[in-house]
């Protein structure tokens, strides 16, 4: 059943990607999406309540896949940033779908979750209050999301390593762990 659910999600994401090339996210109906995906409306509703649910689930899968491979307590910041950039590069098509669907906030919120986990172990941030840490994460996740979107939509002119090095230069990574 899990494979069937994954296959249905894949068909829907691919159909959504095709439809977003010719119309806005808000204009896409479930009827149109299911027709392009080659599944029934009943099948769609067995798995999702609305089209946004597909993006939410796919975003959760992306974050789960990323965080499952990172040990936030022991990872060196540079390695973590390089890995994150490589991982995001491997999900370029999905990020482009989020951008076309005007769901950058979903990307930013999830990048914020990952950054919160990554930065929780930085010694130089231990003295921040919960509110200050929230501001820190929001500030960095907003900038990082903008950089990632620009990088992805411009076909990644820099390597993941170059981008991670740049992010460290501007303070995203920092050498303090």
Describe the protein's architecture and organization.
With 177 residues, this protein is an all-alpha fold. 71% of the residues lie in helices and 0% in strands. The protein has nine helices and no strands. It is elongated and about 55 Å long. The chain starts with a helix and ends in an 8-residue tail after the last helix. Residues 173-177 have low confidence and may be disordered.
Annotate the secondary structure layout:
Layout: H1 2-20, H2 30-37, H3 41-47, H4 51-68, H5 77-90, H6 92-100, H7 104-119, H8 130-153, H9 160-169
Order of helices and strands: HHHHHHHHH
**In total, how many beta strands?**
0
Distance between the termini: 42 Å
Q: Overall mean pLDDT score?
A: 89
Characteristics:
177 residues, mainly alpha, 9 helices
Q: Brief description of this entry?
A:
The protein has 9 helices and no strands. It has helices spanning 2-20, 30-37, 41-47, 51-68, 77-90, 92-100, 104-119, 130-153, 160-169.
